[in-house]
Amino acid sequence: MVKRIRDWLEVRIGLDELIRQNLTEYRVPKHINLFHALGAVAVVGYVIQVITGICLLIYYIPHADHAFRSVQDIMTKVPYGWLFRQMHVVGSNLLITAVLLHMVTIFLMGNYKRPRELTWVSGGMLLIITLGFGLSGYLLPWTQLSYWATTVVTSIPTAFPVVGDFFTRLLRGGNYVTGITLTRFFAVHVSILPPLFVLFIALHIALIRRIGLSATPFGKSDEEKRPLTEYRKKTHPHGHPYYPYLFQRQVLMGIMYFIVMFAIVTFAPTFFFPEEATVPADAFQTPENIRPEWYLLAPYQMLKLIPNKFLGILMQIILLAVFIFWPFLDTHKEKNILKRPILRGVFIVIMISLVILMWWGRR
Ligand code: HEM
């Protein structure tokens, strides 16, 4: 029976050929490490978000009068609703962590360098989309925490002259965060960001497949010194077949992702649910300590510290552009960061500053 189905598929879609091309004959570098599996962990993280998100959608009501109640019902009345919600909330935080780790390791290995500039740019877009998912999803439970964090974040553009107010009103659907904002954020979360994500992940993976994975392990220089004037695929003839070699490592990292997720859900279920996250939104009662999600704390704190708000936002836009187009700015041939003391120093200073800003922003 299995053979008949296989033969049927073989005639129609060339199954054996597909498996050969994409799994066993697709070769990855000899010196691959577990960090090369972080991109796949992000893919696993996204799949979990989509599945749990669809389950939540069945019961969630995107209306200011019902959103809070519907989420409470998911937690207390819907069979396993609490589990899907916990997985979605914990998963969103873990996903952002995985994407950031993937990005930092790519940076440290110098794997953004030519001809992978566009792979980096598409990755940068994926990071922005991932943060967009986090930001838009945060408002949906319509709690004090989500209401006021969204009020704070959506007020940021107002510091920008001429277009700032317009942009804030566009995000909020008025002067304040209201039920209209909820509808807008819901639309962004479930129907605008998903197709954008599919577009950029398809581009990201198509580019990786076309160019081939880079071979640089930490602390080694890349062997490719020839000028790049024509298309050359890195085929790694002496490397390992993707299946089972890298695939096994990706599965291992995927399992670790699940272990961390279930450890948080089991042993620290309130970790992402502080007290304000259990109280319904109230536009007339401002909580004492309003702050955005952890992944926006550093830019938020930076804005608070710069007295001229316009300059602060301008600086952040410039920093974002530098980050997205970094491979075009860093044209140094050396991939190995250990041999680039200035870049290494700048990286360490940026990391320490981000940690300090986050810690400061939390207080
Ligand atoms: C949702 C987010 C993302 C997903 C699902 C994703 C997925 C992947 C996958 C599956 C790979 C191949 C295996 C690997 O090296 O891990 C990869 C490689 C790569 N990613 Fe991402 N990625 C994401 C975000 C990013 C970000 C934010 C950046 C940087 C700004 C980035 C830059 C790259 C680059 C340059 C490579 C090529 C590495 C090489 O050739 O060795 N990605 N990504």
Word description of this protein:
This protein has 363 residues and is an all-alpha fold. The chain has one domain (24-222, 237-296): Up-down Bundle (Cytochrome Bc1 Complex, Chain C), CATH 1.20.810. Helix content is 66%, strand content 1%. The chain has helices spanning 2-13, 15-24, 38-59, 67-76, 81-109, 117-139, 144-155, 164-172, 179-211, 242-267, 294-305, 309-324, 326-329, 341-362, and strands at 27-28, 240-241. The mean pLDDT is 94. Protoporphyrin IX containing FE is lined by residues 36, 38-40, 42-43, 99, 102-103, 106, 111-112, 116, 119-120, 123-124, 126-127, 130, 201, 204, 208, 213-214.
Q: Would you identify the CATH architecture? A: Up-down Bundle
Strand content: under 5%
Segments where pLDDT lies below 50 for 5+ residues?
none
Assign an overall shape. Answer: globular
Largest sheet: 2 strands, antiparallel
Mean residue pLDDT: 94
CATH fold-level topology:
Cytochrome Bc1 Complex, Chain C
Gyration radius over CA = 23 Å
Say which molecules are bound, naming each kind only once. protoporphyrin IX containing FE
By DSSP (H or I, 4+ residues per run), the number of helices equals 14
| Percent range of helical residues | 55-70%
Specify the CATH homologous superfamily. Answer: Cytochrome Bc1 Complex, Chain C
Distance between the termini: 64 Å
Please indicate the count of domains: 1
Strand order of the largest sheet: 1-2
Overall structural class, as computed from helix and strand content, comes to: mainly alpha
What's the CATH first level? Mainly Alpha
The helix/strand series, from N terminus to C terminus, equals: HHEHHHHHHHEHHHHH
**Number of E-type strands:** 2
